[in-house]
Structures are given as C-alpha cells and as structure tokens.
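Q: I have 114 residues here and want to know how they pack in 3D. Can you give me a structure?
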Amino acid sequence: MGDEDTERSKLIEALRQVAAHDRAALHLVYDMTSAKLFGICLRICADREAAEDILQDVYIKVWNRADRFDAARASPITWLCTIARNSAIDWCRSARRPATLPQEAAEDIPDEAR
C-alpha cells in the first residue's frame, strides 16, 4: 500500500471516529486537511479573515456530519473539499460579495473619455 493509500485509510478511519464524537480524531482530521481546505476557502472568498472563519465552520460541519461520510461513494478528501467549497460559496452569497475578475478584465472596458 502506497503513502497515498495509507493517508486515505488513516483519514477514513479518523472520520469514522469523528462520527463517534472523538475529539482527538477531529484534531487528526484537522491536522491532515486544514492547509488544503483553508486554501480552498481563501481562493473562493479572497479574504483571509473570512477564510479562517469559514474553515472553522467547515470543521463544525464535519463534526456534525461525519456519520454521513461514505467511503464507498467518495474519497474523504473529496468529501471534505466539497464541504469547504460549499461553505465558502455560501459565505460569498450571504455577504453578497461580487465575484472578482482578474485585473486583465478591466482592459476590455471601453474608456469613454478618449
């Protein structure tokens, strides 16, 4: 079994333990995934402080929903990334923050002063 399979198995088992409300298991899930999930939150909301708040919300959701995780249907990291992505999108919608476009998009706006 490769390192990736070992990590996946470890994460699956930790999520099973989180479903039984094992706090140490939640801490392990956090240690194994927080950097990736924070990156997702930050990329979507583009606000570091908000991304930290969203990430906290993600782990609350994991705590409350770990019993819904099914390793036969999805990989654990995919399941966690989906929670993070949806949480960040929900935050953007609730904050009514417009989607940001790259700076290059401004080049396409005509300058009527010319």
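Q: Anything worth noting?
A: Residues 8-96 form a domain with the Rna Polymerase Sigma Factor; Chain: A fold (CATH 1.10.1740.10). DSSP finds four helices and no strands in the chain.
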